[in-house]
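ligand=guanosine-5'-triphosphate
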Amino acid sequence: MNAMSVRTQSSEQPAEAVHRAGFACFVGRPNAGKSTLTNALVGQKVAITSNRPQTTRHTVRGIVHRPDAQLILVDTPGLHKPRTLLGERLNDVVRTTWAEVDVIGFCLPADQKIGPGDRFIAKELAGIRKTPKVAIVTKTDLVDSKALAEQLIAIDQLGKELGFEWAEIVPVSAVGSKQVDLLADLLIPLLPEGPALYPEGDLTDEPEQVMVAELIREAALEGVRDELPHSIAVVVEEMLPREDRPADRPLLDIHANLYIERPSQKGIIIGPKGKRLKDVGIKSRKQIEALLGTPVFLDLHVKVAKDWQRDPKQLRRLGF
Ligand SMILES: Nc1nc2c(ncn2[C@@H]2O[C@H](COP(=O)(O)OP(=O)(O)OP(=O)(O)O)[C@@H](O)[C@H]2O)c(=O)[nH]1
Ligand SMILES: [Mg+2]
């Protein structure tokens, strides 16, 4: 099979009686588009996304159900040069994950030349001999066909330099919904035969409390700059149905803390007259209500957890 071919429609598989189920992880530099692609394949938001690097901070499983297969995607944090203890922990999570899955999907954005960060990851992947590696060129909507072709050739070359062949090289656009289904078609044959691992209809195994915290963090990431995105952490302390509500008008009380690292960051997060924090609350509440299917009262507080990215004790408290 020619791994370089850009297929515009699903490759026709012969009807197979076997059922496959297994894990494919997405790895790559921060901001490569891993979480957006995970969501596009699952057909629902299971992982938060942002244009800030290092948005994802834990592995998120998204489940794709097909009649002939169950493809469990494991979205991972972007692998990067760590500057904090948090960064080291995130990289450890990625390395543990790719050692455990059936297929590795290495995401490289179409609009950026292969850089030292990508080479570093590819070199490590070369060491994992037993696992098939699929190169995924993301964000193809951002480039023309000539640039895309050059990127495909460069990626093929990268594999050869490191002494391995990609099982496939697949260009996709998660935002433009291009070749996303094809990617699933190509990943599934690389999974082992076996029965479904998750119940029909489950799209993720993220606990609700974690998803809620992530939606708040996603809203808080929007519009903040510099180091601030890295400094934000969110913990949902409590989710309880409000007592004394009529059965047809339930309300869920959610108490959440938004942590930052320094007192000086408080003003930025809260904004003039509290406007920013209020907007974060409104925006995330809408998403939380859609996720949980119930009206929500969101009680959001900003707290300082001094230098939490570097402090093992604080990291543990925040769930890392
Ligand atoms: N134009 C375009 N933008 C995309 C596409 N996929 C992702 N993006 C954008 O790229 C940015 C990063 O996307 P994420 O999915 O959060 O990237 P990630 O690889 O999960 O990043 P980390 O979690 O930080 O490692 C976001 O602003 C996305 O909207 C795509 O197919 N086309
Ligand atoms: Mg991500």
